[in-house]
Automatic annotation (TrEMBL):
Signal peptide: none annotated. Belongs to the short-chain dehydrogenases/reductases (SDR) family. InterPro entries: NAD(P)-bd_dom_sf, Sc_DH/Rdtase_CS, SDR_fam. Pfam families: adh_short_C2 (PF13561). This is SDR family oxidoreductase.
Amino acid sequence: MPTKIQGKSIIVTGAGRGIGAEIARGLAADGAKLTVADLSEENAHAVAGSIREAGGTAVAVAVDVRDRSSVRAMIGETVRAHGRLDVIFNNAGVAQTKPFLDITEEDWRFVNDVNALGVLIGMQEAIRQMQAQARDGTGTGKGGGKIVNTASIAGKQGYEPLAHYSASKFAVVALTQAAARAFGKDGITANAICPGVVATDMWKVIDGGFREHGLTSRDNEAFETFAGIAVLGRPSAPQDLVGVARFLASSDSDFMTGQSLLVDGGMVFV
Ligand SMILES: NC(=O)c1ccc[n+]([C@@H]2O[C@H](COP(=O)([O-])OP(=O)(O)OC[C@H]3O[C@@H](n4cnc5c(N)ncnc54)[C@H](O)[C@@H]3O)[C@@H](O)[C@H]2O)c1
């Protein structure tokens, strides 16, 4: 029996490793056609290759989500490979640990350029493509399309010493709501996933920052302390985000838009 995302053309940015890689693998296993996009071309190729070896469909694309021409090229390659674009996961992100008073303008731009501006550009260019498909009839159903952004628990609460990271993720939630209001008339939905503490390379960066600034005294201390808050009693693995990704990519979520779903093992209740 075909799955609900069988044959859909799906881009996942930041899919060279971590959460994005696992989402790409999970959706490809369900029969979707993937574009594995990442700043690291090498990692994107490795993940796309592993999908093809498992019998799935995937192309690898090098992208810098901060660069509009690069994002346009990614969408162009997707349409060439899979015929159209149905869903984009704007998942690429960076983190940095800095005590509030030490955050510089450069730090702010580094984090917000990728996490907020990168998501804005990814949404704009994907929506333009989806609107064009609706006009020329190459889209699925009544046209439309699905935008799924990766926000964070830090998009719901401000965390010290991650103030600029938190601000970037609040921006993702705001962009998700604004696009939902703007493009509902086109049948385009925009939702976000808010993970909690996920065991990926990003947390190694965050945890290292806590140590570097003398906020913790041993490796993994920050990771364990934060993850310890989750009522389900363990940190997340990237696989924990695949179910919600599948739901948001499928027709099961067609009447949901503007929402930012916490999938964090029970850390933040709002
Ligand atoms: N790990 C967590 O605990 C956690 C929690 C909440 C939200 N998130 C969010 O989930 C997303 C994925 O995080 P992860 O934990 O898998 O991190 P990760 O560092 O393992 O992977 C992020 C990927 O994004 C890519 N990337 C970075 N800058 C890019 C750019 N300019 N253009 C294209 N790709 C770029 C990196 O090369 C990397 O492959 C991020 O948006 C992150 O903020 C992570």
